[in-house]
Amino acid sequence: MASIDGWDGILDEGEEILWQGRPDPRVVFRGRHLLTVTFGAFFAGFALVWMLLASSGGGYFWTFGLIHFTVGLGIMAGPIFWPAWARRHTWYTLTDRRAFIATDIPFQGRKLRSFPIAAKTRIDYQQGPPDTIHFAEEYRRTKNGSHRVAIGFERIDKGDEVYRLIRDIQRAEA
User: Fold this and answer.
1) What gap in Å lies between CA 15 and CA 36, rounded to an integer?
2) Cα separation of 103 and 83, whole Å?
3) How far, rounded to the nearest angstrom, does the alpha carbon of residue 73 sit from its chain's CA centroid?
4) For residues 76 and 144, is the Cβ–Cβ distance under 8 A?
5) pLDDT tens-digit map of 81-139
6) Predicted TM-score (pTM) of this structure
7) Is 122 helix (H, G, I), strand (E, B) or coil?
8) SS3 of residue 32 by DSSP
């Protein structure tokens, strides 16, 4: 089965796929986006007013405001639309030993990450719908230090079934 599905050379000997799925790709607006959208709107609005005033002087000087206007639109839309777009290019697989997250994002390339599911793996199940199950974490560096990022199967259907499969894996190992 592994070679038919394209898993030849990826799965360990005897490892079986228990579940495969994809995250919900819909756009989600959350309260935390409000500040970013507001700042981006002011940034783009200021650039637009500047371009209108500069265009009254004649010539093409107003075009220098286009970069700022575009940046403002990106600040507004990026945090809302980027995660949904990334989810459209993400696939999840759960085996009897590991969880895989595959992405194929243009300009970033294909990535396949695996995370072992052990008896001591901390599982965080957030019921939705859609449901989210976190089973790993990593620390990402920022300019002001680092912060913890939870990793898992985000925004999936039938998360209760996947959670049960993960708990069965943990019980079998214990």
Assistant:
1) 44
2) 12
3) 21
4) no
5) 999 999 999 999 999 999 999 999 988 899 999 999 999 999 999 998 899 999 999 99
6) 0.83
7) coil
8) coil
